[in-house]
Amino acid sequence: MTTADLLPLAVAVPLLGAVLLAAAGNRLPRLARDVIVTVAAAAVLADLVALWHGSAHGRVVNWLGGYRPRHGVSVGIVLVGDRTGVAVALLAALLVLAVVCYSWRYFAEPPARHAGTFPALILLFEAGMCGFALTGDLFDAFVFFELMGTVAYALTGYHIEDPRPLQGALTFGVVNSLAAYATLLGIGLLYARTGELGFASIGAALEGHRADALLVTAFVLVLTGLLVKAAVVPFHFWLPDAHSVAPTPVCMLLSGVMVELGVYGVARVYTVVFAGPHGIPHGAFRDTFVGFGVLTALTGAVMCWQQRHLKRMLAFSTIAHVGLFLTGVALLTPQGLAGTALYVAGHAGAKAALFGVTGVLLDRYGSVDEDTLHGRARELPLAGVLFTLGGLALAGLPPFGLGLGKAVAEHAAAADLRWLPAVFVAVSAATGGAVLRAALHVFAGAGTADHHRPGPQATGDAEEPEIREASRRVPAPMLVVPAVLLAGSLAVGVLPAVAHALAGAAASFTDRAGYLSAAADGPAGRTNPVPQAGWTTEGVLLGCLSALLAVACAAGSVWGAKVPWPAGRRAALTVRTASRRVILPLRRLHSGHLGDYVSWLAGGIAVLLLVLLAQV
Amino acid sequence: MTILPYLAAGWIFLAGLYGMVTSRNIIRTIGCLSVAQSATYVLLLAIGYRRGGTAPVFSDASPRSRVVDPVVQALTLTDVVVGATVTALLLALAIQLRKRHGTLDPDALTGLKG
Amino acid sequence: MSRTARVGLFLAAAAVFAVVFTLACTGLPHFGAASHPYGTRAVAAALRHRTANVISSVNFDQRAFDTLGEESILFASVLGAVALLRPARDERESSPLPLRVPPSTRLIGAILLPLTLLTGVYIVAHGQLSPGGGFQGGVVLATGLHLAYVAADYRALRRVRPLVVLEVADAVAAGAFALLGLAGLIAGSGYLRNVLPLGTFNQLSSGGLVPVINAAVGLEVGSGLVVLLAGFLDQAVEIDTPPAAQDGDRA
After folding, report:
1. Distance between C218 CA and the closest CA of chain A, angstroms
2. What's the CA gap between A22 and A254, in Å, rounded?
3. Does the CB of A197 have a partner CB in chain B at under 8 Å?
4. Transmembrane segments in this chain: where (chain A) (predicted)?
5. Lower Cβ count inside 10 Å, N or C end of chain A?
6. Which helix (H) or strand (E) covers residue A79, if one does?
7. Structurally, how many domains does chain C consist of?
8. Where are the domains of chain B?
9. What 3-state class would DSSP assign to C53?
10. Contact A346, A326 (CB under 8 A)
């Protein structure tokens, strides 16, 4: 067996684990099911770790079915394990293992006759994510994209007794499927023009055509599915509806890695397929997607601050951060990519930990509402500490991995547009601040509960408790796993080896010629210089600034109305009025109406078409 | 018109979208999603057509006969299966939502907003 | 958004899309054009592997990994849909009553059911030779079984439909595909690589792994579809929803 054989195993192993669970799950005791799912998840992780080491000296390529390219083209599907793809799959595998451990004591009793379904679906989800991250074929990417989606819709609606998860899952499923079909239309257009399906072979064939309306249309359509998965404004509406109602372990996966896979897909498809000569110009891509990224980040941050439903708050914070990821990727520099990779890794740990702690609240109180829970979680100090740390990490506090990623991405962004770091700081402060505010309210009982907020809102009350023994102690894995995840997020920032490895991955990611050559069985390309990706004074200062601002926002919101001096009270009042004028209309747009979301999707496609057409 | 079949695909996609935007019932929305998806079938098969080509199955035809592109047909088969299974899943969600919420009118589904 | 705003936004977007898509189509090769590089290569590769039905060769040999993902989607959505359609905690299952069916209908059903199943098996088995294969034949098998419901009643369907067995068969068949891929790895040549003799062109045993994978997919599609339809039919026939859950029913 060679290193290349490890690539398809990342899909086959979880698939076989799922088969075993589905076939025998009903006959096995709970312990045996937990062992199977954990062993399968660990095996995938081991496979990917070996692959990571194997890809140290260049891309690992596997032409499945033995269809090696003849004259540079193949009839089969190629899997390409470059370091970025493997790193993304590795992140997914790590998070799946964490989620599996978190779920050991989750769900008091799985539904009879469907005992193996939940862990089997988690493993199928993993197969989809690994396949998507490692494939080098556009249609194959669509298939694994759909596998991810299908599993995610089913997992989101898993609680059939509550109408909200069902509605969230439906919205998720309809919007994402529609976008996937748009992607397929785009794939069809590309096939018509080039007669190829591999990323590299399409990319190479497109170099012989000029950039015209067909290229732009194909690009926008292919990207639609990825942008919807990545929840980029205005394709993002489904995300809060789905992430706020899915079972907690599922939220950890959706927010931690699935959404980020959308951004990865955008970057991969653009760099390999469309970035060649006569493709979509770099400048057009950069300007357009930095714009969309900033818009997404700001919208997510504003909406995040408004939420009282904790999971919805975290969902909007994911949107805000995805906006920053997209911005970092759109810079198209190795340093921007390195920063984004670190950022994504750090974010996955922190966000999954925050969802995990929220799951503890849901477990004990049957609510995830900031106001209803006011002060009730004083009895859970450890959970409170974890939640607060998660908030600080989200705000970019050094030395968390998020902070490092933010610092590196900011540095890369400042080289392009001087004001971009300000967006990073503001968005980090708002999302971190919202979490800290909730921590103060829920775990410390600070300030007063505000039960009558204006405008449309989702309350987090009367959620289906996911565990049915409220009196028991919090199961250890439900706190240990978030703690380990936070430690992982910290490790990303503290260990220079991680930063260096991801910077190397980013450098080879931007080497388009090397990818094309590797996929066509050609010689290995040159190696790009590895960008600088460590802590700098500027980065530490900006990280501390955003963390301080987050603390100030949280404190101001909790105690602002009670300050003794009138200027403070007036400031709090002004903020409140302004928010009523500006933010209420924005919140009304998040209407939960499926027809609206489809309209926005069409609008997003139209805007992208016009903006890109004007630039080629 | 040599591009009419491609334009038909675009038209079907838009028709499906229009149905989804104006739908007053989630079942109808899911149906219109399938309409939008059938645009992909039309586009793929239209792209694969070769004038005068026969089906790419050589059990009765000579291996030298002119055939249409088999790859898009395989892709369409995959697409059909994906579409059917996703539709089944969405309909299962719709059935349960109807039972729990008593309605499938998007205007009345107000559980998630803001 | 109000209905007017929603439709307005959509129509504006649709107008842009229509114009740009039309422009894009003018850049496409003309309908019926001769150049299909991948298609031509796929035909040659299929003939090399002695598979008469090139589409089956693409699906189960050249691009078998796509199909592995595809049948995982099928497997996942059967698993997911059946779990979603489980009776909720406040619902009870009841046995449907026997129905009176005219004897002529029963007779037609009794004749058609084995015929349909036979057709299904034929279509699965000849996937590498003639149009058809695991997906198409599997659907015929699954729907054929439901003739028992159409021509008799739900109790008859339940007798010919061993759900527990079929659920396991669905999973095992899905796993069989992944395992068949491993065979190439164990033989030392690579994942999903053919390990069987290619046989004689246009014979039932030609195409190497293609007929075997076809059979696995046929089994999976057939049993998966029966399980899936059982989930939906149970909702309609067997599950009683308590009145509380139907408040606000505007039927």
Report:
1. 17
2. 22
3. yes
4. 6-23, 35-54, 84-104, 116-135, 172-193, 213-239, 251-276, 313-334, 340-362, 382-402, 422-444, 478-499, 540-561, 597-614
5. N
6. strand A78-81
7. 1
8. 4-52+66-104
9. strand
10. no
Handedness of CA A26, A31, A34, A36 (dihedral sign): negative
Residue C30 domain-assigned (yes or no): no
Residue C37 lies in a domain: no
Query: Domain residues of chain A, as ranges?
Result: 3-613
Helix axes C64-84, C163-186, angle to 10 degrees: 150
- The pLDDT score that the predictor gives to residue A462 is 58
What is residue C251's predicted lDDT score, i.e. its pLDDT?
34
Closest alpha carbon to A47 in C40, C116, C191: C191
Please judge whether B100 and A162 are an interchain contact, meaning their C-beta atoms are less than 8 angstroms apart. Answer: yes
Token pair for A598: 């489809």
Residues 6 or more apart whose Cβ sits within 8 Å of residue B56: B67, B68, B69, B70, B73, C39, C43, C53, C54, C55
Residues A235, A600 contacting (CB under 8 angstroms): yes
Instruction: Yes or no: say if B93 and B36 are a contact pair by the CB < 8 Å rule.
Output: no
Contact: A23, C171; criterion CB under 8 Å: yes
The CA distance from A141 to A128, in Å, is: 9
Contact between residue A129 and residue A92 where contact means Cβ atoms under 8 Å apart = yes
| Cβ pair C229, C142 in contact under 8 A | yes
**Number of cross-chain residue pairs from B and C with Cβ atoms under 8 Å apart:** 156
> What mean pLDDT value characterizes chain B?
93
Per-residue tokens: B99: 């039972």
Let me know: does A506 contact A334? Beta carbons within 8 Å: yes
Type and span of the H or E element at A403: helix A401-416
Fold held by B4-52+66-104: Helix Hairpins (1.10.287)
Rg of chain C over all Cα atoms, to the nearest angstrom: 24
CB A407 within 8 A of CB A345: no
Contacts of A161-164 spanning 24+ positions with Cβ under 8 A: A161/A464, A161/B100, A161/C88, A161/C89, A161/C90, A162/A245, A162/A463, A162/A464, A162/B100, A163/B97, A163/B100, A163/B101, A163/B111, A164/A245, A164/B111, A164/B112
ipTM for this prediction = 0.96
| A604 alpha carbon, distance to own chain's centre | 20
Cβ–Cβ gap C36/A193 under 8 Å: no
- Tell me whether residues C33 and B78 touch, CB distance under 8 A: no
Q: Tell me the chain B residues in contact with residue A590 when contact means C-beta distances shorter than 8 Å.
A: 113-114
Neighbours of A545 (CB within 10 A): 16
The secondary structure element, H or E, covering residue B27 is: helix B26-48
| First-last CA distance in chain B | 48
Residue A440 contacts C, CB cutoff 8 Å: no
Q: What pLDDT, on a 0 to 100 scale, did the predictor assign at position C248? A: 42
Token couple for A306: 């408004």
Quickly state the pLDDT bin for A129 (edges 50, 70, 90): very high
Are the CB atoms for B48 and B67 separated by under 8 Å?
no
Q: Which two tokens stand for residue B21?
A: 């935007």
- The rounded distance, in Å, linking the Cα atoms of A137 and A134 is 9
Is the sign of the CA dihedral A206, A210, A215, A219 positive or negative? positive
Inter-residue contact A428 to A422 (CB < 8 Å): no
Q: Which residues of C touch B85 (CB under 8 A)?
A: 73-74, 77-78
What whole-number distance in Å separates Cα of residue A598 and Cα of residue C96? 40
**CA–CA distance, C100 with C102 (Å, rounded to integer):** 7
- For chain A, how big is the Rg over CA atoms in Å? 23
Q: Residue C79: which domain range?
A: 52-243
If pLDDT is split at 50, 70 and 90, which confidence band does C250 have?
very low
Residues A338-391 have pLDDT tens digits of: 999 999 999 999 999 999 999 999 988 888 999 999 999 999 999 999 999 999
Count CA within 13 A, CB hemisphere, residue C158. Answer: 12
